[in-house]
Amino acid sequence: xxxxxxxxxxxxxxxxxxxxxxxxxxxxxxxxxxxxxxxxxxxxxxxxxxxxxxxxxxxxxxxxxxxxxxxxxxxxxxxxxxxxxxxxxxxxxxxxxxxxxxxxxxxxxxxxxxxxxxxxxxxxxxxxxxxxxxxxxxxxxxxxxxxxxxxxxxxxxxxxxxxxxxxxxxxxxxxxxxxxxxxxxxxxxxxxxxxxxxxxxxxxxxxxxxxxxxxxxxxxxxxxxxxxxxxxxxxxxxxxxxxxxxxxxxxxxxxxxxxxxxxxxxxxxxxxxxxxxxxxxxxxxxxxxxxxxxxxxxxxxxxxxxxx
Amino acid sequence: xxxxxxxxxxxxxxxxxxxxxxxxxxxxxxxxxxxxxxxxxxxxxxxxxxxxxxxxxxxxxxxxxxxxxxxxxxxxxxxxxxxxxxxxxxxxxxxxxxxxxxxxxxxxxxxxxxxxxxxxxxxxxxxxxxxxxxxxxxxxxxxxxxxxxxxxxxxxxxxxxxxxxxxxxxxxxxxxxxxxxxxxxxxxxxxxxxxxxxxxxxxxxxxxxxxxxxxxxxxxxxxxxx
Lengths: 308, 226
Hints:
The structure holds 2 protein chains of 2 kinds. By secondary structure, chain A is an alpha+beta fold. Chain A folds into 2 domains: 2-56 and 171-307, no CATH class; 69-153, Alpha-Beta Plaits, CATH 3.30.70.3040. Chain A has helices at 2-21, 23-60, 73-84, 97-107, 112-117, 139-146, 162-206, 209-218, 222-259, 266-274, 276-300; strands spanning 62-67, 89-95, 128-133, 155-158. Chain A has a 4-stranded antiparallel sheet. The radius of gyration of chain A is 31 Å and the shape is elongated. Chain B is an alpha/beta fold. Chain B has one domain (2-219): P-loop containing nucleotide triphosphate hydrolases (Rossmann fold, 3-Layer(aba) Sandwich), CATH 3.40.50. The interface between A and B is medium-sized, with 22 and 26 residues.
């Protein structure tokens, strides 16, 4: 046990020394790994930003159910309860005739002809329920509630006509495509950059294959030879993880206020701020794992027992 | 100490490096193996360190029969044999001290023992004051003495030196040979391969001549003959 501890300590010290003695190689390998981790982390941030923005657009798409005039209060609350019970409904809001008129004035504030022609006394606007749905693709579930025969006497019409339905379907499809595309792209970028880092470490090991050969001839075991290489590669991961996570976080913070009018970035910044330790450690962990695997497979070629 | 019994090594059908070589080396002997390039000297030493496996025949070194040797036991075997190479084979990114200490680290020796042992061995090879230098900062002769220090620091019973003077000028070559003689006086069996006629003739030790993979002469106080 003590021998193993001594060996581990020596491996760690040698790996640490090699990292600094092979400075250029370390800088190159760390730089490539920073790019790899930045791509992975940026993909996460972009995915979050796009998801937030699509969700924001989707949340603004609301279904309105217009009521006939003179519907009694108890029938209105029955209908409201029926809507609220649907699994796909996030919120239901009742808009009476006065509020509908206010909204109408607000929406047409730039058109003096319409404003002057409208008057609160002959308000023809109907009462309505404004419904925020959870999943836009399942909007028919909500409409089905309004179309039930028991509410035929109170429902005049729903706001989902064919043109609007098409827009809603497009937004819903965009949301799915963007999610799929960002995950796929993140996967592809991560795979490509992992291959690049693997090759960089493989070249780093190749340049020191003589060193491995010498250690073998002197009588070092495969584990003792491989250890410092693994430690060194893990150090690439640690430094790259720190640089990449600090870099991406800094860009998000500095970019957020500048683009916030065009894009919703704040919630992603908040997400990073709330989970910074987890993201920081996870990025380092990913870097260390990529480094260790690359180094393990790169050294394996020179440590095959049949070549001893 | 070392027994080769009808050992044959064939790399391919056209090239037989060693052909039924039989050789017996006693403990504490100093044996010089001579022969032209390609005669089979290096193959003989590579078989001893298990860099190569024999095609046929038996090899026993220090009581270890190579027939039953598993791959994972090779590092342990190599730790029992000190080896000096013509091209030094030093770890370029480690200092002189670290190169020698490496041989002790891999056997699990404590730092205190290493700090005590390495300077003594560096003193034997005359490099005590160059412990913190890197190999690139040393002359050829000094590098070879570092390699010898690394080979003897574990006090092996056997030291094999493959053309250790091949890359050195006469003065440095003799420095190296003197160190080998000193080690042999301490009781280590030394197996030296060389092309250097002067060294062979002046050492007056057992000389084994190999030609085309066969032992053609084995004299107890041999001389180098062209």
